[in-house]
Amino acid sequence: MSLKKLALGASMLLALAAGTARADTVSVFCGATDYDLCVKAADAWKAKTGNEAKINKMPAQLDDAIPLYQQLLAAKSSDVDVLFLDVIWLGMFKNNLLDIKAMVPQAEQDAHFKSTLGAGDINGQLIALPAYMDVGLMFYRKDLLEKYGMQPPKTWDELAAQAKEIQDKERAAGSKDMWGYTWQAKSYEGLTCDAIELIASNGGGTIIADDGKVTIDNPAAAEAIEKAKGWIGTISPEGVLGYDEEASRAVFEAGNSVFHRNWPYVWGTSQGGGGPIVGKVGMMPLPVGKAGEKSSGCLGPMYFGVNKYSAKPELAAEFVRFITGPDMQKMRAIEGAYNPSISALYTDPDVLKKLPFLKDTQPAFADSATRPSGYTGTSYNRVSQAFYRAVHDMLTGDEDVKAGLTKLSARLEKLKESR
Ligand code: GLC
């Protein structure tokens, strides 16, 4: 046999051993903000297994993917094998996700925070594995607070007062575009989060309680919304009424906002790219409405699950295990500041070096506010839509806050029952 033939034979054997001879491809949905990290995970999976994951970018605003998923799943389509899932969608899509419990070793399941894993474990079926934690946090300009001799605020009123003072003084000193506080008040799921944070931290509950009682029509909720309404045009630009996460982040990262509410990934984007606020940012749990209340960051972990109609369920489940496993969660944390759902990574020296704030986000997870998706199940989206549309109208002044909450409450009573 010639040397050339021998070499060819050896490389075929190697390829077989690596599994490339039966290499296959799965199609995966990934969020727009962490698309690049998903591509990295796919590259790592290919290097490890020889299999490919084709990553499809989801719409920039996550809830725009809901009708897309609904269509895909109603048609029992096998076009996409792996779905990226917001925690509030798990109840909505549970009947269309494959039970992967038997395919995921128990120790691998137990590595995740119990309650986070639990949200994907419905009626004994494991329909999704957590990829990372998300909780609403407050980012602030450490340099500006120091300049004006201020401590990070404990209450929303303190925040508003500091925001106003710094904004006015900075504008007078020449920073004409400076605003005190940027957040998300566009009519979409993000506003459900921002509003629930203000209301819950003011003692006003979380729209619908765990037992199904509609609680939204109460004075503490009205007070929180009135307060936020007063911020618009004074410490927050009118534009917040159209801002989602990315639009509001752009203002903060351009150096034009003292305080900014967003998810942990903003640590990565604001500190990573060499922009004007590198080294000038602090991060903390959200303020409270009243002394004695809890900081109530909206809880928003993200998951991956397998489409029940996938033609390659085993391979799809393997990819889900890989992308939600410790190596990829560590990569996401280090490269994008995504907070792991695997508890052991919170003491990992490489992760802590890059994300010193992790010690502050853990209490924020513990005190977080949960959206009422557990009780409302398949009707969650309609409930949330009714809530954020009503709150948006209250913030613009199109609807009186107290009367609006009474109307909303009656509507939610009906909607919650169609679950
Ligand atoms: C983040 C959260 C998600 C939430 C969304 C709102 O992606 O992880 O839970 O629904 O923001 O915009």
UniProtKB/TrEMBL annotation:
Keyword terms: Periplasm, Signal, Transport
Cellular compartments per GO CC: periplasmic space
Family annotation (CDD domains): PBP2_TMBP
Keyword Transport listed: yes
Keyword Ligase assigned: no
Gene3D superfamilies: Periplasmic binding protein-like II (3.40.190.10)
Superkingdom: Bacteria
Protein localization: Periplasm
InterPro entries xref list: Bact_solute-bd_prot1, SBP
Pfam family, one: SBP_bac_1
Signal sequence bounds: 1-23
Family: Belongs to the bacterial solute-binding protein 1 family.
Protein name: Trehalose/maltose transport system substrate-binding protein
